[in-house]
């Protein structure tokens, strides 16, 4: 029974009680007032009668409290998921480094880049936190994580492994080398926490759809899946309508997953700084107008949770826009801090979705 139905039943029961019980009380009140003992007995009898009369209309207290709680929890989860990408940046020159270097390229190491969740009462209530290595390891313990997409997804996978293994771990050198083999898949099992991470090189949305269909065919699904594609389509096909269609096909394949489906995230495209793109072809095909057409296609397909779809957005667009040109050397691929932030956003969304806290 829904909360509104419960309240309606209570109101109906109260109205019936007034008609059936309270009107005779008024009629008998004058007579009962002459004898206090009789009055007390009458009030007790009437109270019991009212309770008995209303009982069928009341749900159990536990059901009522559970219903109210579920509404509050659902609202909290939905609100926090919508706020999890609300990040503020502080990007400033490093005091110990001269900024009068060659202007031919922008050296991202010239700047300190710090981020945190914005401050507001709503965000404070969500209690977002930057997870440590041990926190992330505990959250993902025994999980199968799939990260699929283009170079943005590869950078995301690297940041996640850096957090789990530790940035100074000797193992990270071999991980980085193997993960960045050109246009290839990568898989790693971290025995200490039983975590399997698969990176799938899938630069087109149709590749992502094929993977979803493969999981369905095998009836085997990852616990967490992060996917995103668009840059290759933008550069090599440059057709927003075709991208729109591919996203709609992907959405259909995701919507018909079984009830126990993975936590699914969409890794958004970064902001492109056209003047910094390193080839003439990129500057011509990946124009601001075409980028915005692709962004509109994503919104129109309602693939994202914010528009009623199944996937939670990891808003690389917002992260790169706010960090700005000082966080990229080629206008397309951004500094590691962007993907570190995206990993923390995903982990906090997982905490919200799974009703967990640190």
UniProtKB/TrEMBL annotation:
Q: Does the keyword Transmembrane helix apply?
A: yes
Quote the subcellular location field of this record.
Membrane
- Segments spanning the bilayer are 6-30, 37-58
UniProt keywords (A-Z) are: Membrane, Transmembrane, Transmembrane helix
Q: What is this protein called?
A: Pmr5/Cas1p GDSL/SGNH-like acyl-esterase family protein
């Amino acid at each position: 029974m829904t909360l509104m139905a419960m309240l309606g039943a209570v109101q109906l029961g109260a109205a019936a009680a007034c008609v059936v019980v309270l009107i005779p009380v008024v009629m008998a009140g004058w007579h009962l007032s002459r004898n206090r003992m009789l009055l007390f007995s009458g009030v007790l009898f009437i109270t019991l009668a009212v309770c008995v009369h209303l009982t069928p209309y009341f749900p159990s207290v536990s059901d009522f409290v559970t219903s109210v709680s579920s509404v509050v929890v659902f609202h909290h989860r939905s609100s926090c998921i919508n706020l999890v990408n609300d990040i503020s940046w502080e990007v400033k020159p490093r005091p110990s480094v001269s900024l009068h270097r060659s202007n031919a390229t922008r050296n991202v190491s010239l700047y300190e880049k710090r981020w945190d969740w914005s401050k507001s009462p709503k965000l404070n209530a969500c209690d977002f936190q930057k997870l440590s290595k041990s926190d992330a390891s505990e959250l993902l313990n025994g999980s199968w994580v799939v990260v699929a997409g283009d170079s943005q997804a590869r950078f995301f996978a690297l940041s996640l492994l850096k957090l789990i293994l530790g940035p100074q771990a000797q193992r990270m050198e071999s991980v980085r080398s193997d993960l960045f083999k050109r246009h290839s898949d990568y898989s790693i099992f971290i025995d200490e926490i039983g975590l399997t991470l698969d990176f799938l090189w899938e630069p087109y949305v149709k590749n992502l759809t094929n993977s979803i269909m493969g999981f369905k065919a095998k009836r085997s699904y990852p616990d967490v899946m992060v996917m995103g594609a668009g840059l290759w389509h933008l550069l090599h096909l440059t057709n927003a309508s075709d991208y729109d269609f591919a996203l709609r096909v992907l959405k259909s394949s995701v919507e018909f997953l079984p009830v126990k489906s993975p936590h699914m995230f969409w890794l958004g495209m970064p902001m492109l700084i056209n003047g910094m793109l390193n080839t003439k072809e990129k500057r011509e095909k990946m124009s601001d107008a075409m980028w915005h057409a692709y962004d509109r296609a994503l919104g129109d397909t309602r693939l994202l949770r914010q528009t009623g779809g199944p996937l939670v957005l990891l808003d690389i667009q917002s992260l790169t826009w706010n960090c700005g040109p000082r966080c990229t050397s080629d206008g397309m691929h951004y500094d590691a801090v962007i993907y570190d932030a995206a990993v923390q956003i995903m982990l906090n969304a997982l905490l919200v979705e799974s009703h967990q806290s640190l």
